[in-house]
Amino acid sequence: MLTRSKTRFAAVLLSLGVLSAPQAFAAGEPMVLVTTDGQLMQDIPEAGTVRIVIDNQGRRLVIDRWNEVIGFEIPTWQYQQTEPRGERRRHQRRQFDRFPEQPLPPRDDYATTEPQASIERRDLNPTTSSVREQRDEEFRAPDVSAEPAPITTPKAAATPKLTKAQVAALQVYLDRNGVSPGVIDGRMGSNVQKALNSWYEISGERIDPAKTDEIVTRLANSGGLAFTTYTISAEDAAGPFIASVPSDYAEKAKLERLAFTSTLEMLAERFHMDEDFLTELNPGVDFTRPGVQIKVVATGEKNTATITRIVADKGNKQVRGYDAQGKLVAAYPATIGSTATPSPTGTYNVERVVRNPGYTYNPKINFKQGDNDKVLEVPPGPNGPVGSVWIALSKPTYGIHGTPEPSKIGKTSSNGCVRLTNWDAEELTGMVAPGVIVSFIE
User: Which residues does the UniProt record annotate as the domain L,D-TPase catalytic (predicted)?
Assistant: First the structure.
C-alpha cells in the first residue's frame, strides 16, 4: 500500500492506470496537480474519463474527453511559492495534519438531499460551454478549499453539506477496509456513523467526512478511486430471474429458486449498492442490454482476517468480529431481533456455516405467518428469507444470515436472528469456523 508521503498527483495517475508504481514515484520529487488557473485540483477525474499527454515543456497535462486541458502537474515547491501564504498554510494543514480527535457531529447535522454546484474551472475553449453544462449533472466533489470554521464543541461545529458523491466515496473507503457502512447509497446515516466509530477503534484515527481531499487520497492509495465503469455481460442479462418475490411463505415454497428479480437488483448487490442510487448514477440506462457500460462503485477485496469472537451488539445494531489478540478486524451494521421476537442473550458458538441455504418454515418452532400452519420448505436464493448465507449458532433455530432487503439493515426488526447484507454475511462466512464464540450484548 502506498503511504501518505507519496505525491497526490502520482497516486491519482497510478489509480487511473496511466503510470506504474515505479514510474509514479521514481523521480522522488513531490508534485501536485493544479487546475488551469493555478489552484490545487479538488475535482478528481474518474478512471477512463481523462488521458495524459506531455507538452513541449515536458509537463504532464490532464485532457478530458472533449480534448480540453483541465489540469497539469507542477513541483510542490513551485506551487508553494506561487500560492498566497495564507492559502499555502491552509492546504498544508488539510493535506498533512492528522484527523481531528473531536467526535463527529450527530447525523442530523449532515444534509444529503441538496446537491451542490460543481467546481468552476477556467474554460480554455469558450465553444465548449454547452458541453460543460451537460457535465453539471455528474457527481462531483464540491470545492472544499475554503478553510472550515474552527471546531470548539460538536454543537458549535460548522458542518458543510455533503453531496452524494462525497458520502459514497467515504462509504467505499470504509467498505474496503473492514468496517461496512451497509448499502452504498450516498447518504450519511447511522450505519455510516457506526462504521466511522469502528474505524476509530481499529486505527485510532477520526475520519472527517468533509475532508474530501483526504478521502480521495486514501482511496487512490487503497484500490483506486470510488467510481469505475462496468460492462453488462450476456450472462448478467440472462439471469435467471423471477418476476417478483411473494411475501407469503406458502407461495415462496412453490418456486424453484428465490433468485434476483432483475439485472439491476443483481448488479446493485454485486457492487454493494442501493438500487435507487445505481439507477441515479446511470439515468436512462437499460440494464437488460448486454454491452452497456454503467457507472458503479469500486468495491475492494473481501476481508480475509481470522475471527475468533463475534459480538452481536443489540443496542448499537452492529456485529463486530475480533481476532485471537482481541483486536477488532471487521464490523457490520445488523438487524438483531425485535420486541415481539427478541434475539437471545448470553454466549453461544458457531456450529456450522451454510452457503446458498434453503429455509424450513415451522410455525410451531419459529413464528406464525398469516394462515400458514404447516411446515414449508422454502428454496434457496438471494431473495430467500435468510439470504445467501446461514451461520448456525448453538442456540437452536438462531443464526447469523443474509437478507433479501439490504437497504433495511439496521433500520427494521428481525424474527430473532442476526441479519446482515448478503455481501457482508458472505464475507463474514469466510472468516469464521465452527467453534467461534458469539456473544449477544445489550
Answer: 308-441
Catalytic residue numbers read 401, 417
pLDDT bracket for residue 412 (50, 70, 90) = low
Who wins on pLDDT, 296 or 97? Answer: 296
DSSP 40: B
Tell which residue, 318, 350, 299, 321, has the closest CA to residue 428: 321
pTM recorded for the entire structure: 0.66
Neighbours of 67 (CB within 10 A): 10
d(CA 50, CA 45): 7
C-alpha 378/C-alpha 403 separation (Å) is 14
Domains (range + CATH), the chain: 1-97 (no CATH), 227-297 (no CATH), 309-441 (2.40.440.10)
Q: What is the DSSP pairing of strand 437-441 with strand 389-393?
A: unpaired
Calculate the CA 132 to chain-centre distance: 28
Nearest-CA neighbor of 426 among 396, 394, 393, 390?
390
